[in-house]
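Re: beginner question about structure tokens

> Can someone show what the tokenized structure looks like for a real chain? I only ever see the sequence side.

Sure, here's an example I had lying around. Input first:
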Amino acid sequence: MNALPRLPEIDHWVVDETVKGFPGGEQPRTLGEIGRAGWNVLRGDLPFRSQC
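And the corresponding structure tokens:
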């Protein structure tokens, strides 16, 4: 299975805690850096959606 091609034009977009699902208290990162952050939902690194 081939990986999807990277899109260099969006690798430099900055994401911060104003984006849903981004961990609070983390420094803003570019999209290109997020994959190297090592975050894991099952380990609790990312917020889960709350059920009301």
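Each token stands for a local structural state, so reading them left to right follows the chain. The mean pLDDT is 83.
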